[in-house]
Each structure stands twice: as C-alpha cells, then as structure tokens.
C-alpha cells in the first residue's frame, strides 16, 4: 500500500460538482470518504463517478439497526463497489455477524467503536457506559473481531492498545487526525498524522485540514510528508 493511499480524504461536501472540482485540485488523492450528507444529497451515482476517477471509496453511513435490517442495508450497499463500508459496533454481535454475511465482492466491513467526538464525560454521563473510553473501544473492537469484521474505526489514541490486545489482523481507520497547530473543532480525541502512523494507524481520515486549505494539494503533500517521516522513523 502506497502512503498516499493511507490518507482518506473526507469529502464533507454537498454536491457532485463540488466533489469533482475539489478532487481536480488534489491529483495525489487515492482514497476518499463519502459521508451521510454527501451521499444523501447526491445518491449512489456519486460512488460510480468517484470510482471512475480511479479512486477508492469509503462509504461512511454507520449502519446501526436490528440484525435483519442491517443485513439488507449492507447487502444493498456492497453492490455499489465501495472499498470500505461501516456500521456501529454498538448494534451488537448478532447485528455485526449478519451484516458481515451480507458483504459481497472485495468490500471491507469495519466497525465504529466510539466517535472521536466522545469524551469521558459524555461516555459515562450521557451514554451511561461505565469505564473509560479506551475500555469501551477495546470491548467493541473485540466484538468486531468475533463477528469477522475486517477492521475498526477508532481514534488514533486507542490504536496501539487495539493492536496490542487484539493483534494485527484488524485494520485501523482513524479519524480525529489533525496536523499540529490545526483547530480540533468538534473532535475530542485527536492526534497528528505523524503520531497516528507511529501509533499504528493504517488509514487516516482527514477532511477539513485539506479541504479548507487555500491550496488543498499542498496540504495533502504536507500530511503525506509527515506519514513518510513516521514510516522512516519506525
């Protein structure tokens, strides 16, 4: 895997025209994430458009429903030819097993452990989940492994523990990555690209630090340079 492919650009945009325009400014792009807002506003045809541009696609819809509905959703979505689909581990083991059985082709299915906007107070007081955020992430990651999922979504702060506890079979996709000096905005558990790679992240999901830059290609290049530096230092 080339290091440029490890940067998954979060296309937090609203139209196909915006997607085409932005990607024309980032010729180094290899992998993109299509989230709820973009997918719901453009429909599934966008996936074919992006794939025709030679890019890999992570469709980030975070399926979370009863097992039968999750099975049907993943069965339908996997026909779009995405490289990665995801669901919420909080849906439970049976839901994840059923969804995993629905995957077709080469699509990878990964489980969201805890959103990077979740901090300790929110976990305990609002979600009423006891223990630390790391405890919860490891528990959900273990369930994902039992269900046969290909990987998990977690913050880079938990990657080292996930790998040391569950082994290297699960791929780790990490949002909450911000270059040094960038605003963390609504993210709570963050890390720089270099530190995330050194911690063991396989893929870095990065949106605003690239898209909001006046020169997105240069922003991408700076992040790629951090990844290359981290790989050399390993």
What does this structure look like?
- This protein is an alpha/beta fold and 234 residues long.
- The chain has a single domain, classed as Aldolase class I (TIM Barrel), CATH 3.20.20.
- It is built from eleven helices and eight strands.
- Helix 9 (193-199) runs parallel beside helix 11.
Rg estimate, integer Å:
17 Å
Helix fraction? Answer: 40-55%
Strand content: 15-25%
Classification by helices and strands: alpha/beta
What's the average pLDDT? Answer: 94
CATH topology: TIM Barrel
CATH class: Alpha Beta
Instruction: State the major sheet.
Output: 8 strands, parallel, barrel
- Number of beta-strand segments: 8
CATH architecture grouping: Alpha-Beta Barrel
N- to C-terminal distance? 16 Å
What is the 3D shape? Answer: globular
Q: What is the succession of H and E elements?
A: EHEHHEHEHEHHEHEHEHH
Full CATH superfamily name:
Aldolase class I
Order of strands in the sheet with the most strands? Answer: 1-2-3-4-5-6-7-8
Low-confidence stretches: none
């Amino acid at each position: 895997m080339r290091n440029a492919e490890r940067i998954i650009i979060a296309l937090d945009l609203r139209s196909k025209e915006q997607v085409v325009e932005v990607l024309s400014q980032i010729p180094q792009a290899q992998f993109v994430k299509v989230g709820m807002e973009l997918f719901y506003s453009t429909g599934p045809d966008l996936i074919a458009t992006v794939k025709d541009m030679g890019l890999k696609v992570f469709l980030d819809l975070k399926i979370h429903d009863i097992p039968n509905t999750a099975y049907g959703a993943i069965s339908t979505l996997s026909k779009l030819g995405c490289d990665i689909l995801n669901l919420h581990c909080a849906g439970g083991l049976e839901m994840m097993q059923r969804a995993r059985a629905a995957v077709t082709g080469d699509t990878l299915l990964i489980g969201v452990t805890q959103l990077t906007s979740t901090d300790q107070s929110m976990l305990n007081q609002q979600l009423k989940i006891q223990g630390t955020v790391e405890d919860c992430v490891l528990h959900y990651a273990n369930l994902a492994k039992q269900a046969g999922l290909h990987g998990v979504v977690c913050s880079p702060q938990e990657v080292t523990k996930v790998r040391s506890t569950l082994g290297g079979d699960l791929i780790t996709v990490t949002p909450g990555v911000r270059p040094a000096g960038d605003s963390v905005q609504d993210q709570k558990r963050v890390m720089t690209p270099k530190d995330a790679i050194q911690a063991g992240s396989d893929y870095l999901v990065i949106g605003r630090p690239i898209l909001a830059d006046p020169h997105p290609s240069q922003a991408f290049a700076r992040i790629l340079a951090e990844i290359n530096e981290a790989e050399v230092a390993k």
